[in-house]
Amino acid sequence: MVYDLIVIGGGPAGMMAAGRTGERGGRVLLLEKNPRLGVKLAITGKGRCNLTNAEPEIKKFIANYGVNGKFLFSAMSRFDNFDVIDFFEQRGVKTKVERGQRVFPESDQSRDVNEALLEYLRDNKVAVRTKAAVKELAIRNKRIEKVVLLGQEELAAKNYLIATGGQSYPGTGSNGDGYDWLKRLGHKIVEPRPALAPIVLRENWIQELEGLSLKNVAISVWQNKKKIDNRFGEALFTRHGMSGPIILDMSKKIGELLALASGPVELMIDFKPALNEKILDERLRKDFAAQINKMFKNSLTWLLPQKMIPVIIRLSGISGNKKVNAITRIERQKLSKLLKSFPLTVKAVGGWETAIITAGGVDLREVDPKTMHSKIIENLYFAGEILDIDGPTGGFNLQICWSTGFAAAEGIILNHNLPTPASPR
Fold first, then answer.
1. What is the mean pLDDT of the chain?
2. Buried b (16+ CB within 10 A) or exposed e, 304-342
3. Which of 128, 176, 83 is nearest to 424 (CA)?
4. How far apart are the first and last CA of the chain?
5. Treating both helix axes as pointing N-terminal to C-terminal, what angle do 329-340 and 309-316 enclose, rounded to 10 degrees?
6. Per-residue pLDDT tens over the stretch 183-208
7. DSSP 3-state of 85
8. DSSP code for 346
9. Distance between CA 295 and CA 321 in Å, rounded?
10. Which of 42, 157, 224, 352 has a beta carbon 3.0–4.6 Å from 3's, enabling a disulfide?
């Protein structure tokens, strides 16, 4: 059979593109090299699957993607974050909105999202081949003629869509092989880099804080005494560094600064962002006055998590056994400064094994933003993480998959006069 579309990659973008093309009347074959579809989707959001974000203003939503965000305006005008919510709720996946407007299934189970997509494929008669690893794409006169599988089987279609993702979590099959095919086809690939990754710190005492979760803190990134970025929210100490939403969202910029090698990259943690240094110092003075006979090491439980206190005491230079009433104004002010600007030095950003997503990918200048159509190969389309666009935590990266997958399907129908029966989303 010559299909209308062969989709390579059975993740969220590939399943959305395949299902929508089938829904619109196209004959579709979906190829996935893993034994099952949606392997990476199953682990997103720690297995809860942060579907999208409920930010109501499209401009604010797209601003989260930085300079490349404008590429998504057309795709999101066709299928936005609220369309995503409706899509899954119509298929039995009730959703809820949590802090930061993150949207999750009510069940907190990513398998419910995956099953809804599998049902979407079945309902629209999409043929699925798992354990089908692609070896190469054969091209002639700027058109793909066929897909050659590792076992030398050849498959043909009128159109092809690549949704193989990036290189993050290579154990799920995301090893970047799509980039190699596309380079051979003449596409430019913006160098892939790990993004939304934990960081490694230089301080040798950091393992003392392993597992400590910080809430409502502000963390800033500095290089050469210049503040580069600043975020408020939650973070987590790991055995060798830090993770959590704030760190993951800043990791891409931190990686860029490390690559510049123009000076050490430092973090400053503000444990009390609601208070300026002067007010915090006054709070410390009043609190110390109320517990004048306590030792310093026993006076900070109101101020810091227990695990943090020994580190703060050591870095403050104040003896833990010193009576609070003996602490000088200079020592108190030094403590206040430490609580507002707790310094850490970045050694590295985590690699592909720990990165949630990939930054970089197919150069967006070579892709039609309305249809996801290649400007180089006549019958080639893209969707998802293979493209050079990425966002922060909070559902923004899955939204790329849904919107570009849907837009690609619509583009294939439009560009190639495929059957278009009236069908609801």
1. 94
2. beeebbebbbeebebebebebeebeeebbbbbbebbbbb
3. 83
4. 27
5. 130
6. 999 999 999 999 999 999 999 999 99
7. helix
8. E
9. 5
10. 157
